[in-house]
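agent> call fold_tool(seq_1)
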Amino acid sequence: MLLTHSLHLVPDDQRGPCPAMNTLANHGYIPRNGIASFEQITLALMEAFNLELHFGAGMAANNMLTRGNPFVDKVSIGGESSLVPPLPGKIDGPVTGGIAKHGRFEGDASMTRADAFIGDNRDFQDILYDLDLLQLGKFGDNSPDGDSTVFNVPTLIGIKKQNIMMDQAANPQFEFGARRMNAAYVQAAFLLNVFANGTTKQATLPIIGSFFRNQTFPPNWFRAASPVTGVINGATVSQVMAAIPLSPGRNNAQGVYVADPAPPPPWNSSFACFAYYDQAANTAGVLVNTTGILKKNVELLTGIQFQNALANPGCDQQVLPFGPAGV
């Protein structure tokens, strides 16, 4: 049974760019103030959405390492919060920022948020969702009862092509590195594998509208009947990627999209390994050279990331965070 929800937010409550996280907070699966621990997020993803443990823990680990405070085990699902202090000694800057802070994990070409360089990358944008629905109108299926339109893989492909094309043209600082490309496609695949009604296995327009517009569970909605694994969601990601032959990259000074150089072996063996390496390259390296409970927590979180990466051929060597601090 779903917990009741409340949208009566107080001024310091945090909401951000992820509809799933916002929904969890609105229904009380994680604290309603939007400040949660690694354990709370992982358990909430399992309980509310039936995400398999390692799949959910991997995403929670990314959030905590990139925009949270592993020392106190807190991360904001939105923006900066006084409840999530900077790391000891401010080794990664004066604020953590929350998962809405652009760059390390949050990024460009979102389905419902603007690029940070262009506008509001935190809050739902009606115009972007309306553009997504144009793709649903072109490619979506009809529900068996004929009362709604159903999202499918061709719809996701159309949406992501549109997101990338529009933002690459409008954003001179457009960046679609491997870590962001992977996250963008994983999030799109959620529509079919996580947001779909578990009883019908359909992601209808009212269901997706409830998650995106209202950030609440739809009426009479049930989670997936069996745990959603990274392999299950990854199969949809692979279909989307195969239809969008774009290498990870970014705009240069002339506004031309150029591919990023491949990582060194063995992380050049697959896209998933590339994304794993790219995430480490954009997570603060100062996290590694710590002591005590912070060091233990970082080792736990980076170990979870590595265990997920091991599922991909060639990703048999761990790479620890080595990115810049304070960004």
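agent> call fold_tool(seq_2)
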Amino acid sequence: MDFLELCKKRFSTRKFSAQKIDEQTLEHIMECVRMAPSAVNRQPWKFIVVGSESAKEKLVQCYDRQWFRSAPLYVICMKDTTNNWVRAFDDKPHGDIDLAIAIEHLCLSAAECGIGTCWVCNFDPQRLNALFGQPGYEAVAIVPMGYAAQDCVGKEKQRKTLDEIIEFV
């Protein structure tokens, strides 16, 4: 499939089947994450793959929704707060931007493999840091991953027209 088709295919999956993601597929997805670009190639991120039942039980304490519990796997996406590039003109740190690029690599490569994902930013960061935190890192998103349940389908994407979002000067 071409890239535009992949972008149209990907949707926020909110109901997963029990089917596990095989190790080779997960490795492919994480290799795509590793190849994501970042400012000055700092790669200011760490990804914690949560698959054990005990770790999942801890994670749902941070965001307890039934649909979220249905995922067979989760990725906690952490920003390295000590190693992200800062723009000199205005002191803007780019760690969140860099991590967002890597997360989208995760979501699109997962979609390419037939795996559903959903960005989750609505979680308790203090609890997550208490349970999974690492010095120098900040949790930015949790991405549940798995094969979509049979009755889970994406809605038709509502997007602005090109004329609304692009200006040629």
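agent> summarizing second result for user.
The two ends are 33 Å apart (CA to CA). The first strand starts at residue 45 and ends at 50.
agent> awaiting next instruction.
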